[in-house]
Amino acid sequence: MARVQLSPALTATGTYPFVKLEEAKRRLAAQGVDLIDFGKGDPREPTEAMIRAALAASLPEISTYPLAEGLPELRQSVARWCARRFGVELDPDTEIIPTYGSKEAIFLLAQVLVDRDGDRRLVVTTEPGYPVPDRGAVFAGAEVLQLPLLEENGFLPDLDEVDAATWNRAAIVWINYPNNPTGAVAPLDFLKQLADLSEEHGFLLASDEAYTELWFADPPHSALEVRDRGNVAVFNTLSKRSSMTGYRSGFAAADSDLIGALKQFRPSVGTAPQEFVQRASIVAWNDEAHVERTRAAYRRKRDALLPTLDRKGIRVAGSKATMFLWLEVPEGETSEAFATGLLDHGLIVSPGTFFGPAGEGYWRMALVPTEAECRRAAEILEQAL
Questions:
Q1: How would you class 165 by CB atoms within 10 Å of its CB: exposed for 0-12, middle for 13-18, buried for 19 or more?
Q2: Sequence-distant (≥ 6) Cβ neighbours of residue 108 within 8 angstroms
Q3: Which residue, 252, 285, 318, sits at the end of a domain?
Q4: Quick one: which of 214, 210, 173 has its CA closest to 190?
Q5: What pairs with residue 174 in β-bridges?
Q6: How confident is the model at residue 32 (pLDDT cuts 50, 70, 90)?
Q7: Residue-wise over 85-113: b if at least 16 C-beta within 10 A, else e?
Q8: What is the structure's pLDDT at 15?
Q9: CA–CA separation, 108 vs 102, rounded Å?
Q10: 309 lies in some domain
Q11: 269: domain range?
Q12: Which of 271, 380, 132 is nearest to 365 (CA)?
C-alpha cells in the first residue's frame, strides 16, 4: 500500500525539543531515578481558588461553540488590565481578541499575513528562542531569518546589522521580551527603534509577551507602549502570569485592521477558549494580588539556587525576568554534554542549543519545581559540580 505523503514543512521542523526531554524523563523514571525537572517551563504553582471557582460556576448544562471574538466582558477586562499595567488605552471591541493561550496565535499569525507567492514573505525571528514563530512561518510557506541574541548585546538583536532591503522583504518581525530562554528584558528605546523601523518599512512588529508579569526588580516594558510609532501586535497569556497553562487563555492586541483580519480567520481554525474558561479568565485579569504572590514564589526559588551556583562558579547571564535562569556552561564543556551529565544526578535542565545555535555555551533552568525541590537541587549541585 502506498504511504501517505507528509508535508515537507513538518519534516523540516523536526522533533519539538521538549519532546526529547519528556522521552529522557520517562526513561529515567522507569529506571527508578528520583528526578527534579527544571526542563520545561510549565508552572506548577496552584491556580488561585477564586479562578477555579469561577470556572466551575460557569460550566453550562448545555455546551455551545465559543465565538472567535470572545466575550465582551473578557475583552473589557483585558483592556482595563493593559491600561493599568502599561498605561495604554485599547478599544475592547476592535483592538483585542481572545486566543487559545498564545502559542496557537503565534504559530498561526503567518497564515494571516504572509503571501507565499509575494515579494514580502520573510519572517524575522530571534535565536536562541521559542521555536513556535519559526515553525508557524515555515508552515505558512514563508522564508525565515533568525537574528542571533548575543550576550554582548544584552541578548537583543543588533538591528543596525539588518539592511533596508531585508526589512523591506519582512512581513513579520518577532521579538520575545522578557525573553525565553535568556531572561533578558527590552529597554523602551529598543522597542521604539523597532517600532519606527516597522513604520518605515511596512512590516508587523509582533511581540510575544508571555513573561511580562514574572520579574525580579523592575516591571518590564511592553511593545504596546510604542504602538503609536508603528505597526505593532502584542500577544500575552494567563499561562505564566496566573499559572493557568492548561486553561489555554490569552489575547492578541493590535490595530483594528489586524484584529479584523484575525476575526475573519480564526473561526476557520476554531481556536477560541471555551466560554467557561473565558469567565475564569476575567477573574484572573481583574486581580493582581495572586500575581504578586506568584512573583514572590519564583523569587524564593531563585534565591534558593543562586548562592550554590555562585559558589560553584556558574555564571548567571541575563535572567532579569521570566521563570528561567540562563546560565553559562563551565569552560571546556558543551551545552548538551553538561545537561546530560546533570541527568545522571536526577536534574533535568535544558541545554542552550535546544533554543538555537546561539544557545551553545549556556543552559536553562525553569524554576517550576517546588521551593523544597529547589533547595534539594542546590544540595545536589553542590556535590555534582
A1: exposed
A2: 136, 265, 266, 269, 271
A3: 285
A4: 173
A5: 206
A6: confident
A7: bbebebebeebbbbbbbbbbbbbbbbbbb
A8: 66
A9: 10
A10: yes
A11: 63-285
A12: 380
